[in-house]
Amino acid sequence: MKNLIKFYRRYSNWVNVVVPLGLVWLSLQLGISQFWGWGLFAILSYMFIAMIIGAIYTRIRYGFKLPNEDNYNLKGDYILPFNGEWTVVAGGIDEKHAHGSGKILPPLRYAYDFSIIYENEEEAKLARESTVDFPTNLDEYPAYGKDVIAVADGEVVVAVRHHPESRVGGFKTYNDTTDERGNFVVIKHHKGEYSLMAHLQYGSILVKKGDMVKQGQVIAKCGNSGNTNAPHLHFQLQSGKYAWFSAGLPIVFSNIKAKQSDYYKDLFVDTGKPMPTVENNLKVIGKKSYIGRGLDVENGVDESHVGGV
Q1: Cβ–Cβ < 8 Å for 214, 153
Q2: Which phi and psi (to 5°) does residue 34 adopt?
Q3: 147 bridge partner residues
Q4: Strand partners, 86
Q5: C-alpha span between 46 and 104 (Å, rounded)
Q6: Rounded to an integer, what distance in angstroms lies between the CA atom of residue 49 and that of residue 47?
Q7: Torsion, CA 242, CA 156, CA 113, CA 93, rounded to 10
């Protein structure tokens, strides 16, 4: 039974689609009702269906004009969801650098993935000289177990904490549970502004639904649960409590330091993946500064807004 559960966790996305559709096919061959096959598909593939319905609903809700950096003004001031210096490994206001396409999935348009590639230059030098592939031990990843903090005051409206950590190694993507987000927390900051932090470490979430949190308060630790290729923090600001029925909101982080990362390119060494162009990926629009992939960022006053970028 344990092996069956483990198998389902690892391949749930395939099982939830293939098995029900297989039953529909079988019912066609036997000349019986297909209702039970489609019913099982609706039950098991609820997230897939929610994504489709949510994408349609969100566009209708906004009159097919989703929030963007030109038409949306934040109601609150937000800091980065961690302490110390992390690298923006995905995300940005330019669609070519974005975490996900807003044309397909509205909540992911302005999402970010943050991680720590190396703690210091000595660690980077040793890693570059080594012939060892990406570690298979979670504790060897600098971001794993680091504090995740609230980006602003607010109320916890969702806290999911039961998902195990996914496998890791070779920079391959794994999802050893039934939700791509893994363990995650959603906090309501203002009407229509909710932060979501995902891939949190199993057993690390310190808050529960209904708790009031303060900006900078530690709420969990960075983990590797859900759909991930290495420990990192997925962050997005969204318009509602439920991600798939929300639009992603362009977020300006207040009082941050940002500089071009010396380590971002290392993520793409020996992976066969082309590295996106990330030079000068800090956008200043009026008094708003938007970060993008390829930057090292941290909380702290930076009056110049350019921080060496």
Answers
A1: yes
A2: -95, 0
A3: 221
A4: 297
A5: 17
A6: 5
A7: 70
Q: What CATH number is given for 86-299 in this structure? A: 2.70.70.10
Locate 5 and state its tokens: 């559960």
Going by their DSSP bridges, the two strands 183-190 and 174-175 should be labelled as unpaired
**Confidence band of 74 (pLDDT split at 50, 70, 90):** very high
Report the first-to-last Cα separation within the chain, whole angstroms.
53
What's the length of the chain? 309
SS (H, E, C) the chain: CHHHHHHHHHHHHHHHHHHHHHHHHHHHHHCCCCHHHHHHHHHHCHHHHHHHHHHHHHHHHCCCCCCCCCCCCCCCCECCCECCCEEEEECCCCHHHCCCCCCCCHHHCCCEEEECCCCCHHHHHHHHHCCCCCCCCHHHCCCCCCEEECCCCEEEEEEECCCCECCCCCCCCEECCCCCCCEEEEEEEECCEEEEEEEECCCCCCCCCCCEECCCCEEEEECCECEECCCCEEEEEECCCCHHHCCECCCCECCEEEEECCCHHHHHCCCCCCCCCCCCCEEEECCEEEECCCEEEEECCCCCCCCCC
Encode pLDDT of 200-251 as tens digits.
999 999 999 999 999 999 999 999 999 999 999 999 999 999 998 999 999 9
Helix (H, G, I), strand (E, B) or coil at 222: strand
Helix (H, G, I), strand (E, B) or coil at 31: coil
Write down the domain spans for the chain: 2-44, 86-299
Q: What is the mean pLDDT of residues 63-88?
A: 93
